Amino acid sequence: MITMRRQLLGLGFVAASSLLAMNAAHALNGPTSIKIDGGPLGDLELSGGVDGYGYFVSNQPDGSKNVGTNVGSALIQLQKTDGELQFNIEVGSVGGAIPVGASGAPGQTTIDNYSTGPLYAGYVTIAPKDMPFTISAGRVGSLEGYESSIDWNNPSQLVTDIWYVQNSQNTGVEGTYTKGPLTATVLFGDGWDTHVFNFLQAAVNYSFDDNNSLYVYYAGNLGRTGLSARTYGWGSDTTVADYGPWYMNSQMFGAFYSWTHGNLNVVPEVQYVYAKPDHQLGIDKYTSNFGAAVFGDYSFANTPYSLGGWVEYEKSIGNYTWFVGPESEAVGFAVSPTWQYKDLFARVNAGGLYLLNNKANDGVTYGYGNSGTDKFQFVGTLEAGLLF
Predict the structure, then answer these.
(1) Phi, psi at residue 71, to the nearest 5°?
(2) What is the C-alpha end-to-end distance of the chain, expressed in Å?
(3) What is the pLDDT of residues 272-325, one digit of tens each?
(4) Short-list 294, 215, 197, CA closest to 11
(5) In whole angstroms, how far apart are CA 36 and each of 13, 39, 125, 199, 347?
(6) What gap in Å lies between CA 307 and CA 122, rounded to an integer?
(7) Rounded to an integer, what distance in angstroms lies between the CA atom of residue 335 and that of residue 347?
């Protein structure tokens, strides 16, 4: 049977904001900020959202839950986005993004996943007047990948292997430089919420025009993150040794391209992450994970309806579980018809993962169902929420 990991990985607000700034046709429009007078603080923006869902997961072993209901994400955000001194505070819990084929029955969202509890993001930004750079410090989001841990930022509530292996929230310092169509960002902090400051991230976004942009990213350790360091799941004292040291001691490279034509947005993405042998960490052999996906959004003109989804391919190398199991190879899909009227939305999300290979190098076979070796799993959810 698969060892399931319910990971809250992917993008935080910083990277998500840069993506939403692109002129793209999104299947689901995110929160619209409410302008408020902050007195001596100046103009402030308040926004947020909450969603819940019912789910069905096929091919679960007897005794495991295959239907249920959960709260997805619940967030309140207050930010100041102009002037030389800016800030962003985001409070709540995130748990609505569901990786297809990797997590069994989705778990209830919780504020115990991060070391900061209900503080999902909280940072101050210095933006010198008439200068092309900004500096931020505090609790910030990852620069990795296209998909977000905040499910309403994505074309589907269901997410890919690419999202699953990425780092999420960090405490650190971030610098951004913008010149014309080019934006470059560097972030140094405690990747994987470990409180071990040895993690470097970098990203470059280039907008060729309003409808075409390229985003390239890197993330990796500059030093060893020890097995006793804490990481996601702070409510249960999760350590690097429990979570998988190859996640926290790795190097990642990736890129995605956003193309928009009218009401259609298409985003192909590729990502490669690897961990070198390190016997002190229990990584005895080289191991890696490759992911490729194509995301799509289409908004039907003059209607409240849209359609999002993706197709993916993943391949793991080495006798370590990055996604489903050692040496896994799989293809997957998700499709999400969406209805949205002003601040209300509802989505039907359906997806599946088929294992092209489910046998490790040592001959152990893994998978789904009572046998623990079935190759296909289907996930379906009915999601509804309020954004403001």
Answers:
(1) -80, 135
(2) 41
(3) 999 999 999 999 999 999 999 999 999 999 999 999 999 999 999 999 999 999
(4) 215
(5) 20, 9, 19, 36, 30
(6) 33
(7) 10
**What SS3 class is residue 366?**
coil
Radius of gyration of the chain (CA): 20
CA 291/CA 271 separation, integer angstroms? 5
The sign of the dihedral angle between the CA atoms of 94, 96, 99, 102 is: positive
Q: What is the pLDDT of residue 16?
A: 37
Smallest Cα–Cα separation from 321: which of 356, 353, 358? 358
pLDDT, tens digit (0-9, with 9 covering 90-100), for 218-229:
999 999 999 999
Q: Measuring CA to CA, how many Å separate 217 from each of 68, 198, 220?
A: 36, 17, 10
CA distance 331 to 336: 18
From CA 92, how far away is CA 74, in angstroms rounded?
5
Distance from C-alpha of 306 to C-alpha of 297, rounded to nearest angstrom:
7
Q: What is this structure's pTM?
A: 0.92
What's the CA gap between 141 and 23, in Å, rounded?
Answer: 22
Report how far residue 181's alpha carbon sits from residue 168's, in angstroms, rounded to the nearest whole number: 26
CB atoms within 10 A of CB 255: 17
Alpha-carbon distance 151 to 174, whole Å?
24
Closest CA to 289 of 102, 143, 142, 155: 102
CA 98 to chain centre: 10
CA distance 345 to 350: 17
3-class state of residue 236 by DSSP:
helix
Cα(318)–Cα(323) distance, rounded to whole angstroms? 12
Hunting for tokens 């999202």 — which residue is that?
A: 163
* Six-digit token string for 59: 């091919």
Q: Which are the contacts of 148, defined by CB distance < 8 A and separation ≥ 6?
A: 10, 11, 12, 15, 16, 19, 97, 154
Would you state the structure tokens that stand for residue 267, as one six-digit string?
């985003």
Structure tokens at 223: 């030093």
Say which DSSP state 231 is in: -
Task: Quote the DSSP letter at residue 108.
Answer: P
For β-strands 67-80 and 287-299, DSSP reports them as unpaired
